[in-house]
Design goal:
Layout (H helix, E strand, L loop, with lengths): L1 H30 L2 H20 L8 E7 L4 E7 L7 E7 L21 E12 L2 E6 L4 H6 L10 E3 L8 E2 L2 H16 L6 E5 L6 H13 L4 H17 L5 E3 L5 E3 L45 H15 L9 E10 L5 E8 L3 H12 L7 E3 L2 E3 L1 E10 L3
Parallel strand pairs: 1-8, 6-7
Antiparallel strand pairs: 1-2, 2-3, 4-5, 4-8, 5-6, 9-10, 11-12, 11-15, 13-14
Helix pairs in contact: 1-4, 2-4
Length: 388
């Protein structure tokens, strides 16, 4: 019995040594950068006192960050045990904003993403003082955004300037950098950052969002899932578990499965294209090691898009200068483009022609998952502009 107790004590001490070593290693690595070492020297005691004033234990082992675009706020929630409820430590003011409400869907749209992310990078030598990188595009973004150019390099950073990131002041990013460094050192590999369009308990913000949704109907499913996550956290003070449905939409794992209401349409004769049976969703790869490649590569695909845009220009509605058309298509495991479907933009004639053109593309090099070819769904934005 004594021997067994001795073993338990030794295991406990070894575990504690490992935790302390991991914490020391990550924080010491951050301090190896002169700027960060100076930040820790100036900030740590102040943060410790601020935590103590609010009855919080320093340093926090778990951090959760919520950002609200319209309200320009960033909340920092902390706790030290998994079963504890998160408690609000601070609310920072986001000091610049790019884009509008709505998700980021392509490179160069200046949009701040909306959805469920986590910190993937601590960047001490940032051009914006200090930066914390997010995992945009995440799995949902990869399914719903432009397949070739979804954009990237989304950070929470200092310097109060932005082209689609989340900027706060240098003083605030220093606080956040120290707090999240300790959480990362204490074993929180994935520090969640949830980005919402509005603070849903602010009636004025919600009213603005409602008016916005009247124009942008396709944005409603994302807002609904984001609000569900917001409400869950406000009720439970625990971070919700979010998964994806086959269409790349967010779903709270705790929620019962929702049966979609399908509008009943008048029966009509199906076209030959509509009689094609799509590849079942469970046979489409969600993650791959290598994306499919258009013959000739990205430049050749861009040439195809440019030529398609010019050829579809005569189909623009009268008086309309441009159309932004989003098309969903599948590259099957043999590299064949199949089941193209316009999901946004255009008109009936333009969309039908675009779908035909995408299904008539030459054979691609298929996507690979663990060296095996797999089918994958892609999404592409085609900009059709009137000819000059």
């Amino acid at each position: 019995m004594k021997t067994f107790k001795s073993i338990l004590v030794i295991l406990f001490l070894l575990t504690q040594t490992f935790v302390l070593t991991a914490q020391s290693s990550f924080v010491d690595y951050q301090k190896s950068f002169g700027k960060v070492a100076d930040v820790f020297r100036r900030k740590e005691d102040t943060l410790r006192r601020q935590f103590e004033t609010k009855g919080l234990q320093w340093p926090a082992k778990y951090v959760y960050i919520r950002s609200f675009k319209l309200d320009s706020q960033l909340e920092v929630w902390v706790k030290n045990n998994k079963k504890d409820e998160f408690r609000l430590f601070k609310t920072f003011k986001i000091c610049a904003m790019a884009g509008s409400l709505g998700p980021k869907r392509m490179q160069g749209d200046y949009q701040v993403p909306e959805g469920f992310y986590y910190i993937t990078e601590f960047k001490p030598n940032s051009a914006y003082h200090l930066s914390l990188g997010l995992n945009y595009p995440n799995a949902s973004d990869k399914m719903l955004s432009d397949s070739l150019y979804p954009g990237g390099d989304i950070f929470i950073h200092g310097s109060c300037v932005t082209e689609g990131c989340i900027p706060i002041t240098n003083d605030q990013i220093e606080d956040l950098y120290v707090i999240t460094s300790y959480a990362r050192a204490n074993g929180q590999e994935f520090i969640p950052v949830h980005i919402f369009p509005v603070q849903f308990n602010n009636s004025r913000s919600v009213s603005y969002l409602d008016r916005f949704l009247q124009t942008y109907q396709s944005y409603k499913p994302l807002v609904a899932s984001l609000r569900s996550a917001y409400d869950y956290f406000d009720k439970n003070k625990q971070v919700p578990v979010v998964v994806l449905n086959p269409r790349g939409q967010y779903i709270l794992e705790e929620q019962p499965k929702v049966i979609e209401q399908v509008a009943v349409a008048k029966p009509r004769t199906l076209t030959n294209r509509e009689k094609v049976v799509p590849i079942p969703e469970n046979e489409l790869a969600k993650f791959v090691n290598n994306q499919p490649v258009y013959p000739g590569g990205s430049k050749a695909f861009q040439t195809f898009l440019d030529e398609t845009s010019k050829e579809l220009a005569p189909l623009l509605d009268e008086g309309k200068k441009a159309a932004y058309v989003v098309i969903d298509y599948i590259i099957d495991k043999d590299g064949k483009p199949v089941y193209a479907k316009v999901v946004k933009g255009g008109n009936d004639d333009m969309n039908e022609e675009l779908e035909k053109r995408f299904e008539s593309m030459p054979q691609w090099k298929p996507a690979l998952r663990q060296e095996m070819p797999v089918a994958i769904r892609l999404k592409q934005t085609v900009v059709v502009e009137a000819l000059q």
